[in-house]
Design a protein that fits this description.
Layout: E1 6-9, H1 18-22, E2 27-33, E3 37-42, E4 46-50, E5 53-67, E6 71-77, E7 82-87, E8 90-96, E9 101-107, E10 110-117, E11 123-132, E12 135-138, E13 144-147, H2 155-158, E14 174-176, E15 195-196, H3 245-253, E16 257-260, E17 276-279, E18 284-286, E19 290-291, E20 298-299, E21 305-312, E22 317-323, E23 328-334, E24 338-339, E25 344-347, E26 350-351, H4 352-355, E27 358-367, E28 381-382, E29 389-397, E30 405-414, E31 420-422, E32 426-430, E33 436-444, E34 454-462, E35 465-474
Parallel strand pairs: 9-11, 26-30, 28-35
Antiparallel strand pairs: 1-5, 2-3, 2-10, 3-5, 4-5, 6-11, 7-8, 7-10, 12-13, 13-25, 14-15, 14-24, 16-17, 17-18, 19-20, 21-22, 22-23, 27-29, 29-33, 30-31, 30-32, 30-34, 34-35
């Protein structure tokens, strides 16, 4: 798209001031990036230089809205110089390009300015592609999931900080599991019985590290957060929700990891904001620590990162992602602890209903590592003294696909009292031309003893719709 410009001559004193004759010509282009569009404003001043003398000053303004990832052509008086993008006076992206090709990447939501430097005597059309920063990670070898670039209630989101450089502004707030927390306008400087705000500056007096008045000692109602759907108590913004523990496990298993910064050797350092863990190159989680369940005081800042999942046992514990400078894993913890939240967006999988499949059979088998189909021994009763991982297997039929697609099936193993024992959700891929396939997912331990005796109800879900129910017994 060619964006026309109306130029006009300015009322100037001639000859031009000496500093104009010797300064480098420039032409700012304002880029105001919102969640899905970028407003581009061209103008302020463009100086066309011929050799060492200024022959003319042209002034102009124009604006165009771009969808993220789209491109347009803008006219710059001058070309072949350097280009940079600045945000809040900090350079966040730059490129030295030809006079006809400019791709702007790494933009943050907010006001960005494209500065054209060293513009000389060439007038040219420049094609501009606007691409904002996106964050996410693989949750299977082939399924990419979007994540918010910032911890929930991180001040850095409001100031458009680089989400891949640790700082105090990226720490964010701490939630007790299942709690809604305060209104978003109170996230940055208010403590409540269920929520502690993050630091308000880089110094120890800004850390909000002390105990929280009236820190809640009670537990939230059942299903305050859910791994099947977004509840009213989920504090994530529209289009996002708290990740399930299976999604966190997928992040751990399917992305190269590395750590940055200086990691604390104790749990009581309240000014170390430099350490973080990368999962791939598009998801960085700060080691923001946690809050004690007894009084809400800070612990483990710069030593560990602790991020809640939406998965709980329908009683007093929930699963969370924990990492330090050595390893990342999933663990159970008391819901009254305060932990970080990183909201997840959409992923590239499809719902089970989109496959149009019929479930022919659901069967169970026990294993240490998943055996081939012809070596599986199926049953619904397993020994507590020898049972390790208990797997469910689906036999499904469906219309053939043109392209390979990945689908999500959710599963819950419920104890006899209604509490969730485990939720081995399954992402499975169907190849083009297939009409029938077998898929399985397991939960337990490589050694016996993890399963308590009793009868478990196993429910399979497509989204929030129950599509199968079976029982399995441990005796």
């Amino acid at each position: 798209t060619r964006v026309e410009v109306s130029n006009y001559m300015a009322d100037l004193v001639w000859p031009l001031p000496a500093d104009w004759e010797t300064s480098t010509a420039f032409s700012p282009v304002g880029l105001n990036v919102t969640d899905n569009t970028a407003s581009v404003t061209y103008g302020k001043r463009a100086v066309e230089r011929i050799k060492d003398s200024v022959s003319a000053i042209t002034l102009g303004r124009r604006a165009v809205e771009l969808e993220m990832g789209e491109s347009t052509t803008i006219f710059i008086s001058g070309g072949s110089g350097g280009y940079s993008v600045v945000n809040s006076d900090t350079q966040v992206a730059s490129a030295s390009v030809t006079s006809t090709d400019l791709e702007i990447t790494g933009l943050f939501v907010g006001n960005n300015t494209l500065v054209v430097t060293d513009a000389w005597d060439v007038s040219s059309d420049v094609s501009v592609t606007v691409s904002p920063i996106t964050c996410g990670a693989y949750i299977t070898p082939t399924v990419w999931k979007e994540f918010d670039c910032y911890n929930l209630a991180a001040i850095g989101k409001t100031t458009h900080d680089d989400p891949f450089i640790p700082s105090w502004r990226l720490i964010g707030g701490y939630w007790q599991w299942g709690r809604k927390g305060p209104d978003p306008d109170q996230w940055y400087d208010t403590n409540t019985p269920n929520f502690a705000h993050g630091p308000t500056g880089p110094n120890s007096v800004d850390a909000n590290s002390n105990s929280i008045s009236n820190w809640d000692a009670s537990y939230p109602p059942d299903e305050s957060w859910s791994s099947l759907y977004k509840t009213a108590n989920d504090p994530c913004p529209s289009g996002y929700q708290i990740p399930t523990h299976m999604e966190w496990n997928g992040v751990i298993q399917n992305n190269a990891q590395n750590i940055i910064g200086t990691w604390s050797n104790d749990t009581d350092n309240y000014t170390n904001y430099t350490s973080a863990r990368f999962f791939g190159d598009k998801l960085m989680l700060p080691s923001a620590g946690r809050r004690y369940m007894s009084n809400g005081a800070m612990s483990e800042l710069g030593f560990r990162g602790s991020y809640w999942s939406s998965t709980d046992d329908l009683k007093d514990r929930a699963l969370f992602l924990r990492f330090d400078n050595d390893v990342a894993g999933r663990f159970w913890n008391d819901k009254r602890l305060g932990k970080s939240l990183r909201c997840g967006g959409n992923d590239e999988s499809k719902s089970f209903s989109e496959l149009g499949a019929a479930i022919n059979q659901v069967r169970f088998f026990e294993c240490e590592t998943k055996p081939p189909l012809d070596e599986r021994i199926y049953d619904t009763i397993f020994s507590q003294t020898t049972g390790r991982r208990i797997c469910y297997e689906i036999d499904i039929s469906y219309p053939p696909l043109v392209h390979a697609e990945t689908f999500l099936l959710s599963a819950r193993y419920y104890r006899s009292d209604g509490r969730i024992k485990c939720d081995p959700d399954m992402y499975f891929t169907v190849q083009p031309g297939w009409k029938n396939s077998f898929h399985s997912s397991c939960w337990g331990s490589s050694t016996p003893g993890w399963w308590e005796k009793g009868t478990y109800t196993v429910k399979l879900y497509d989204g929030t719709t129950e599509i199968s129910q079976k029982t399995v017994t441990i005796e």
